[in-house]
Amino acid sequence: MPELRRDPIIGRWVIIAKERGRRPTDFIIAEEPVRGGFCPLCEGNEHTTPHEVLAYGRSHFAPDTPGWSLRVVPNKFPALVIEGDLDKEGEGIYDKMNGIGAHEVIIETPRHDDVLHQMPVAQIKLILMSYRDRMLDLMRDMRFRYIIVFKNFKRAAGASLEHSHSQLIALPIVPYLIQEEINSCLRYFDYKERCVFCDIIRQELATGSRIVCENSNFITICPFAPRSPFEMWLLPKRHLSTYTDLDDSMLDSLAQIFSETMKRLNAAIPNVPYNYMLHTSPLKQLNIEHYHWHIEIMPKTTMVAGFEWGTGFYINTTPPEEAAKFLREVRLLV
Amino acid sequence: MPELRRDPIIGRWVIIAKERGRRPTDFIIAEEPVRGGFCPLCEGNEHTTPHEVLAYGRSHFAPDTPGWSLRVVPNKFPALVIEGDLDKEGEGIYDKMNGIGAHEVIIETPRHDDVLHQMPVAQIKLILMSYRDRMLDLMRDMRFRYIIVFKNFKRAAGASLEHSHSQLIALPIVPYLIQEEINSCLRYFDYKERCVFCDIIRQELATGSRIVCENSNFITICPFAPRSPFEMWLLPKRHLSTYTDLDDSMLDSLAQIFSETMKRLNAAIPNVPYNYMLHTSPLKQLNIEHYHWHIEIMPKTTMVAGFEWGTGFYINTTPPEEAAKFLREVRLLV
Q: Does A151 touch chain B if contact means CB atoms closer than 8 Å?
């Protein structure tokens, strides 16, 4: 059973998920994952993954068989496990609990070589829909407080498998950074009676210099204080705190701008590794006035080093106005 | 002039330090730095760095000449600049100020191939002394609120030069993470009338399972909730909030345990890249009861990926008790 432990100073939780038999020398970081070889995420290899929890596109009713367009399975090496009780306890001044949670893999395509920025908008819609649908299902488990969806693209951004996939982790606590973000939004709201993200969108639309692209429902910007060059935020223009409230027509619109955003990024910096993270309201705080769901896209163009680790302060060599201009004007291949 | 910008949500500051003429494709991350070639940090090349601000070991009085054992120079490509006024201002809902600060490079040795874990204890003492002495000097500048000292070892940990060096950055604000840490310590102190780090040391000494090494004045532990495998904290056993209060005999003792700690790390995971960061009290809060200076050592054994970016939550595959046991028992080469 993995263990959740809380740092007694900063209140940051970590998951201690022991991999048995690992020796210190196993930690020397490998470069790229071995290409080729067997891929458990490919169509035809469904029997090698844990049983699927969701699949779209199959015309028959046999789970864990070919014929799907998107498939979600539990992670074979989960950071958290679904069975058990939380068992919160102290250990002197320290706090810990059992590593209860869900850890799922969204297999975004049956084809090994598809990459997100080249997929049809309809496929991207399925991906975004699967995030919503898995969240709606997991929200019913009262032990969970937060669900984070994220994608690591390429080894340099932390991906250990080549086949295009995202991940979902349901947590029994609201993570430190999300809680900080929400607390700050609440302070802003208490003072101004407005959502800070709504104010950001209003100002960005007025100035225009940090806009990457937009459609009638969504906007992608380079934020005013980006942690790294070409960081982007994708937000709904209208106030919406909770991702699971997206209806079908909003999903269409989101798929369109998300596709365009990722195409622009790849056109600007070909094959750049990246992470993206879906930030939505906590499970026990749905439809709140002070929070605004969004996707943060972090191209892996720099390394987190001592200064960033020590201070939470980032050094960025590209002003967001310049990055946005480049992303806005880059020639998209069709 | 670099610019400091504040994220309006989380309150995180970033330094926008534009490097002119950089194209997006320049961001594709290089593997290792080119070995060999000219090194500006080597003895004999003093004229290629900005004028030194400190040197130890020279027997004559000509600055920027050979004969030194340790040398500190301003960074040639500083993230922050020393000349100018802060000029704090708003830009709609955003906050910014001029990028005023100091950014220095501590050249730890005149020899290109020396590495920290193989240096004599006396050389390590010079390094630790230079941190103190540069801080004492920079503290007199009333524009500065915090000084962070850190080291990036090897390219994978963010080092862009091979020659053994650390860096110092003096900031006009207390960084977000440090402020959070200090606020938490203050809350603990208000409640318990004790320093949380002192309580941690007491508990670690009592249980013993997370101790890596200790001497009469200092202790190195693997913390209860480490962000990554083999993370270590080095702390003074007696309450001390401010690094610059270290006297000569304490520096001897610190050099001894710091040397041993780095030797143990390298024996456990040969040539592992790492970052370390010196956490000390803010410049306008010296000698406080609720904070405790320490060095955080983070071996680069994992990658920060979407989950960590999105949540501030870390997944660690090695319990600190196991890491500490290994580090404690590893055979040290003499």
A: yes
Contact B225, A6 (CB under 8 A): yes
Q: Render pLDDT for B84-100 as a digit per residue (tens, 0 to 9).
A: 888 899 999 999 999 99
Pairwise CB contact (< 8 Å): B10 & A180 = yes
Q: Is some CB atom of chain A closer than 8 A to the CB atom of B229?
A: yes
Q: How far is B194 from chain A (nearest CA, A)?
A: 12
Q: How many CB atoms lie within 10 A of CB B190?
A: 9
pLDDT at B312 over 60: yes
In the predicted structure, residue A23 carries a pLDDT above the cut 80: no
Inspect the interface and report whether the beta carbons of A148 and B181 lie closer than 8 Å: no
Say which CATH number the domain at B156 has.
3.30.428.10
Tell me the ipTM for this assembly: 0.87
The beta-carbon neighbor of B29 closest among A6, A301, A305 is A301
pLDDT tens profile A192-226: 999 999 999 999 999 999 999 999 999 999 999 99
Q: Which residue among the candidates B103, B117, B163, B165 is catalytic per the annotation?
A: B165
pLDDT at residue B25, rounded to an integer: 61
pLDDT at B334: 62
Domain stops at, among B175, B198, B217 = B175
On whether any CB of chain B is under 8 Å from the CB of A161, the answer is no
Q: Are residues B256 and B139 in the same domain?
A: no
d(CA A182, CA A186): 6
The answer, for B318 touching chain A at a CB cutoff of 8 Å, is yes
Residue A334 has pLDDT above 90, yes or no: no
Task: Name all contacts of B80-85 with Cβ < 8 Å and 24+ positions apart.
Answer: B80/B2, B80/B15, B80/B17, B80/B169, B80/B170, B80/B171, B81/B1, B81/B2, B84/B1
Asked, for residue B243, whether it belongs to a domain, the answer is yes
